[in-house]
Each structure stands twice: as C-alpha cells, then as structure tokens.
Amino acid sequence: MNKFLEEFKEFALKGNVMDMAIGVVIGGAFKSVVDSLVNNIINPIIGCFSVGGLNGLSFKLGKAQLYYGAFIMEIINFLVIAFVLFTIIKAFNKVSDFRKAPEEAPAATTKVCPYCKSEIHIDATKCPHCASDL
C-alpha cells in the first residue's frame, strides 16, 4: 500500500499533471469571461436584429418546445472561445520563437579537392582520387 501511495504521489506531482490542472482551472475562469462576452455584448447586438434575441427563438414540435436560438448562442460561444484561444496560442508561439537560440550548423567533415573537385575528408593531406598533395 505504501508503494502505491508513493507511485501516486510521483504521478500527481509531475510537471505535466500540474500544468494540466492549472490549465483546467484557468480554462474554467476563461469560459465565464467568454460567456459574459457572448451573453452581455454579442447576444444583445444580435438581438437588435431579431425580436427577443436568439435565446428566445424556438418552435413547438408536438408537446416539446425546442429552443434552437439557445443552441445557436452556444455555437457562437464556442467559436468565440476557439478564436480567442487561437490568437493567444499564435501570439505565445511567436514570442517563444524569439526566445529560442538559433541552431548552429554542424561542423564540416569533408572538403573539396582544389584540383579534381572530389569530396574528401577534411583532415586529408593527399587526395585519394587524383593523388595531389593538399
């Protein structure tokens, strides 16, 4: 039992798990901000073009009342969240590209013989193809 708890502790305190937990919490807070944007700004603007806003749009199917306006608002909510996340990730990637060190080119291991233009080892003092002294 002690080994099980030790393994669980190691798993739970790994960097990826903690990052994911923080992302979920921030995502929940971000959702409430986007919900407020959609419900308090976008929905009233769209509501100017329809009576009662989109949330009021519905139709009766038998005894059931189907609120397709609320569904449309959820789609708009999703699109706003996706767009904002896309712009944030794009900006983050641009910033992280600036912070990366430029990669160095690998050291050359060959050179070209000035006489026969064959590729030879960089430390060679005699060309194996034309027998010229280098």
Automatic annotation (TrEMBL):
PROSITE patterns: MSCL. The keyword Ion transport applies. One of its GO terms (molecular function) is mechanosensitive monoatomic ion channel activity. It is found in: Cell membrane. This is Large-conductance mechanosensitive channel. PANTHER family: LARGE-CONDUCTANCE MECHANOSENSITIVE CHANNEL (PTHR30266:SF2), MECHANOSENSITIVE CHANNEL MSCL (PTHR30266). It comes from Eubacterium uniforme. InterPro entries: Mechanosensitive_channel_CS, MS_channel, MSC/AndL, MscL_channel. The lineage of its organism: Bacteria, Bacillati, Bacillota, Clostridia, Eubacteriales. Channel that opens in response to stretch forces in the membrane lipid bilayer. May participate in the regulation of osmotic pressure changes within the cell. Keywords: Cell membrane, Ion channel, Ion transport, Membrane, Transmembrane, Transmembrane helix, Transport.
